[in-house]
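To the wet lab folks,

You asked to see what we're planning to order before we commit. Fair enough. Below is the target structure as tokens, and below that is the sequence we designed to fit it. If anything looks off to you, flag it before the synthesis order goes out.
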């Protein structure tokens, strides 16, 4: 099980900030007359690993990402920046940001030597000052297991950005997470009530048929 992460809602977008991220800096040494290429790489998300979104009354509520969640996602123009704001430091459109999936999760590799901000960010990551990652997206399809208090993101519609982040202290993120889970739980309960009502109607119908048979 991964360590807790925070969640927030930005209009239609959801944001995940992981408490721990496998982010590392890699400098590729080239010929003496060529520019050094500076990369950061790691996993922005791991698959099928339940993560605690919040806890209330001693009950932990989880979320996990299905290993097929990004298969149909729009990742045609994803950007890499800092804290989801400021200047773009890498992007898929100009091939300075590469995003792939494997058995473990969503893997990113960003080249940061193209801008002054990118080079500075590289040094901060390389120095260990920043080692967190966040990404924003829109969900196309998800499911909710009420018994285990677990939401599964089954399909991502669009991935907007992957960002290096500092340690965020968002007390209100648990509120939006609870709102999301409570809405899903309400839908599940409504569906279960419809099923129960249908079963009850069928039982009453069978009872009437039995009575009619013996009359």
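Sequence we intend to order:
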């Amino acid at each position: 099980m991964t360590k807790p992460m925070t969640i927030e809602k930005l209009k239609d977008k959801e944001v995940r900030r992981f408490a721990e991220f496998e982010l590392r800096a890699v400098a590729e040494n080239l010929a003496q007359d060529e520019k050094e290429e500076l990369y950061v790489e790691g996993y922005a998300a791991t698959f099928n690993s339940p993560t605690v979104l919040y806890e209330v009354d001693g009950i932990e509520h989880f979320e996990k990402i299905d290993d097929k969640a990004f298969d149909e996602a729009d990742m045609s123009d994803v950007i890499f920046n800092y804290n989801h704001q400021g200047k773009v430091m890498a992007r898929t459109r100009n091939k300075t940001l590469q995003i792939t999936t494997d058995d473990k999760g969503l893997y990113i590799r960003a080249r940061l030597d193209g801008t002054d901000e990118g080079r500075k960010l590289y040094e901060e990551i390389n120095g260990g000052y920043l080692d967190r990652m966040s990404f924003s997206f829109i969900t196309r399809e998800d499911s909710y297991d009420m018994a285990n208090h677990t939401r599964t993101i089954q399909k991502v519609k669009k991935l907007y950005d992957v960002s290096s982040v500092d340690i965020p202290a968002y007390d209100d993120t648990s509120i939006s997470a609870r709102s999301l889970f409570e809405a899903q739980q309400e839908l599940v309960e409504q569906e279960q009530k419809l099923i129960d009502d249908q079963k009850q109607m069928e039982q009453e119908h069978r009872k009437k048929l039995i009575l009619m048979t013996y009359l």
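Structural context that might help your review: Residues 173-214 form the longest helix (42 residues). Residues 168-176 have pLDDT under 50 and may be disordered.

Thanks,
Computational group
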